[in-house]
Amino acid sequence: MSIGLANLITLSRLALIPFIMYFILNDKYLISGVLVLLAIISDYLDGIVARLSNDVTKHGELLDPAVDKIFTVSVLTAFVSKHYISPFEVFLIVSREMLVTWVRSVMVNKGIVIPAFFLGKVKTTLQLVAILLLAVNFVDYGKILLWFSIFVAYISGFEYFMVFYREKAWK
């Protein structure tokens, strides 16, 4: 079994996480910013590479969002440690992600695949830019954008719950 370039890009993002955390925790803003930017680029690049090379796999479809969540939670935890953000903000982000993941999993078990909604993509973009701003020590702007991403996250999460309700997926 070969891994494929897209999955290697995804795994490279996973490998960057401890370094990003280290540089954030040690006030190396330029290095942490460059590494966060590389992680963001790799997040967009892995999907593009998979589609262009016709190498979209189930492993990749599961690996990419898992690495995204590991990245987000890990980096946000570093920001909590730096007192840039509160544990409550991380709680709101993680809770929403887990609930949406649960809804999507239940729907897949019912044979219904819910693609990412537009607002979910906006949420991800806002969240990644907030993380980048926090990584380069633009804390006030990063916090504002992170709260905005949380607001958008819950609106987009509502979209998933509406599909869940409409399909009566709890039955």
Automatic annotation (TrEMBL):
Enzyme Commission number(s) of this protein: 2.7.8.5
Keyword annotations of the record: Lipid biosynthesis, Lipid metabolism, Membrane, Phospholipid biosynthesis, Phospholipid metabolism, Transferase, Transmembrane, Transmembrane helix
Substrates-to-products reaction catalysed: a CDP-1,2-diacyl-sn-glycerol + sn-glycerol 3-phosphate = a 1,2-diacyl-sn-glycero-3-phospho-(1'-sn-glycero-3'-phosphate) + CMP + H(+)
Stored InterPro entries: CDP-alcohol_PTase-I, CDP-OH_P_trans, CDP-OH_PTrfase_TM_dom, CDP_ALCOHOL_P_TRANSF_CS, Phosphatidylglycerol_P_synth
Membrane topology, as annotated: Multi-pass membrane protein
Protein family per UniProt: Belongs to the CDP-alcohol phosphatidyltransferase class-I family.
UniProt protein name: CDP-diacylglycerol--glycerol-3-phosphate 3-phosphatidyltransferase
The species this protein was found in: Sulfurihydrogenibium azorense (strain DSM 15241 / OCM 825 / Az-Fu1)
